[in-house]
Amino acid sequence: MAVSHPDGLSARPWVGETLLPRLPRLRKSSAADAPADHWQSADGSRPLLEIRGVSRSFGHVRALHEVDIDLREGEILGIVGDNGAGKSTLMKIIAGTVRPDAGHLTMNGEPVSVATALAARRLGIEMIYQDLALFDNLDVAANIFIGREHTRWLPLLLGFLEKRRMHKEAAELLKRLNIQIGSTRQPVGVLSGGQRQMVAIARAVAFEKNVKVLLMDEPSAALGATESETVLELIREIRSHGLSIVIISHRIPEVLSLADRVVVMKRGERVATLDAGSTTVEECVNQIVAGEAGAAA
Q: Which of 27, 32, 81, 92 might form a disulfide with 98, Cβ 3.0–4.6 angstroms?
């Protein structure tokens, strides 16, 4: 199959023995060290990603107002809130698909510009949207390698897809991530919801050596209990490789079971940051319903 020449900006696929370098484990700081909702990495380093004063409006609708959030290395951060709380807008700003009206982001203490999705990817930020953005008519391997295909170039600038190589590397990747899919040659359209979510996760983390942050919008929204648990196990596996993960979900019990901290948003503002290990569903719901932005630490 002939293909056009790559644009030169796409990263080459990468499948290594170790998915990502292992990063420092997190610990909760003691009461003497910092406020109750503050976390730091074991070596006392600053957050991997800092969001400061981010605001965004769409016409007269204020989606975000002066939001401050930290994400630390190797951390799972949950973001919860009612519809219209600004969760998805915040994620899109981090992913480079929406520009803020005010505020800034830093990574490893350095100011960064995330004006486009490509800029975010170059910084090591990947996002999995709620609709997954998969191609139902293409097989598993083609979806994993979409836009970053292995090609072989012949004279006269004729390019051909190296399908056998892509299927081999896709199968190795799925095995490494403990993803159970019968064949990489199956069309994605015939897979279950849980399997589709796993393909989207694999695509997001497989190709870049410098992936640092994975953003996930409602990863289990359309799944049953069994498939949801399978996806949650995969998220834990990905986190064990050192990724920092941000998850938006309306399923608060799932968020508490996965996350280290939980950010509660309401009407475009952060109203609380809670320690997931000592927080209850009832407390999260109370903050969603009655929380005030001025009370956020």
A: 92
Give the DSSP H or E segment for 248: strand 244-248
Q: What is the domain-level CATH number for residue 51? A: 3.40.50.300
Evaluate whether residue 224 is within a structural domain.
no
Measured between alpha carbons, how far is residue 230 from residues 6, 184, 238 in Å? 35, 19, 13
pLDDT in 10s for each residue of the chain, 297 residues = 444 433 333 333 333 333 333 333 333 333 333 333 344 444 455 799 999 999 999 999 999 999 999 999 999 999 999 999 999 999 999 999 999 999 999 999 999 999 999 999 899 999 998 888 899 999 999 999 988 888 888 777 778 889 999 999 999 999 888 888 989 999 999 998 889 999 999 998 877 677 899 999 988 887 888 888 888 888 988 888 889 999 999 999 999 999 999 999 999 999 999 999 999 999 999 999 988 765 554
pTM for this prediction: 0.76
In a domain, 203, yes or no: no
Could you list the residue range(s) of the whole structural domain that residue 88 is in?
37-124+212-219+244-297
Q: How far apart are CA 178 and CA 241, in angstroms?
A: 13
Domains identified in the chain, total number: 1
User: Is residue 153 in a domain?
Assistant: no
Q: In sequence order, which residues have a C-beta less than 8 Å from that of residue 237 and are 6 or more positions away?
A: 177, 178
Residue holding tokens 């979510």? Answer: 197
Q: Tell me the C-alpha distance between 41 and 43, whole Å.
A: 5
